[in-house]
Design brief:
By secondary structure, the chain is of the alpha+beta class. It has a five-stranded antiparallel beta sheet with strand order 4-3-2-1-5. A three-stranded antiparallel beta sheet has the order 6-8-7, with helices on one face. The chain has nine helices and eight strands. α2 runs antiparallel to α3. β7 and β8 form a beta hairpin. It folds into three domains: 83 residues, Helix Hairpins, CATH 1.10.287.1260; 54 residues, Roll (SH3 type barrels); 82 residues, Alpha-Beta Plaits. The relative contact order is 0.07.
Length: 279
């Protein structure tokens, strides 16, 4: 019994299986080391998402080479496997035209670089942080911590807004004041609030625009600039400070109003009623 077991363990089939397992283990190790080294090398000269993409490419390429070597060690013919893979890829290509479109769109996104990992983008009604940029889709994390996958084809066809592309952003405050208010005084109050807000930038300078005469108010736009990481804090604090300053100065922010004039009908006299009946 022991002699048969020893002979089986020393047989060529078992040795080939062990060699194939060793090749796969070494391949996993080398693929991990090589991909990390490539990422560290490329991140100095390329964007983060390009480095991550090349890291994955090197990982799977090295792993595929060792996997092919393991199959050859087990006695599989690589020519037959490649032929079968070619036929299978053609069949899958006809069955998954959407995936092919997403793949091509992903290559365009990689070349165009409209956003990077960590950017905040808005696609349709979805706004979130870019977690990964893959060949088939882009993954986002929304502000309420939801995971959103957007196909690359949709990104190519749809308007996309990168909210963190540039280092500063502008906040536009759209506000209306009563017709009785002094526009110059309103301008001074808004400018004073902007000057005292630590998140508001002095350059570019705040912008005051008198948009015109609305139905119930004088329409005003006041725009201030801030660093992109402070945009949300500025939007909250600036509007609160404007409301407090307007209340202190007695500036009225009107709400829509309608004036209704009631016309009393004229009373009909008996003589008019008689004349009408005679006609």
């Amino acid at each position: 019994m022991m002699a048969q077991l020893t002979a089986y363990l020393l047989s060529e089939q078992v040795v080939n299986i062990l060699q194939a397992v060793i090749l796969l283990a070494v391949g996993l190790l080398l693929a991990s080391v090589a991909s990390r080294a490539v990422q560290k090398l490329l991140i100095r000269h390329f964007s983060q998402h390009h480095a991550v993409l090349f890291k994955r490419l090197v990982y799977w390429l090295v792993l595929a080479l060792f996997f092919a070597s393991a199959l050859r060690q087990l006695g599989f013919s690589l020519g037959v496997l490649l032929g079968a893979a070619g036929v299978l890829s053609v069949a899958i290509g006809f069955a998954s035209q959407t995936s092919a479109s997403n793949l091509i769109s992903g290559l365009f996104l990689i070349g165009e670089k409209p956003f990077q990992l960590g950017d905040i983008i808005k696609v349709g009604n979805t706004t979130g942080e870019v977690l990964s940029i893959d060949l088939l889709s882009v993954k986002l994390r929304t502000f309420d911590n939801l995971y959103v996958r957007i196909p690359n084809e949709s990104l190519i066809k749809t308007e996309m807004i990168n909210l963190t592309r540039f280092p500063i952003r502008r906040f536009d405050l759209m506000i209306g004041v009563a017709y009785k208010e002094n526009i110059s005084e309103v301008r001074q109050i808004l400018q004073h609030v902007a000057d005292n807000n630590p998140l508001s930038l002095d350059e570019p300078a705040p912008l005051f625009i008198f948009n015109g005469f609305a139905d119930s108010s004088l329409s005003i736009q006041f725009s201030v600039w801030t660093k992109r990481e402070n945009f949300r804090d500025l939007r909250n604090s600036f509007q609160e400070e404007v409301k407090i300053a307007f209340d202190k100065a007695g500036i009225e922010i009107p709400f829509p109003q309608r004036t209704v004039h009631l016309v009393q009908p004229q009373a009909v006299t008996p003589q008019q009623s008689s004349d009408s009946n005679n006609v």
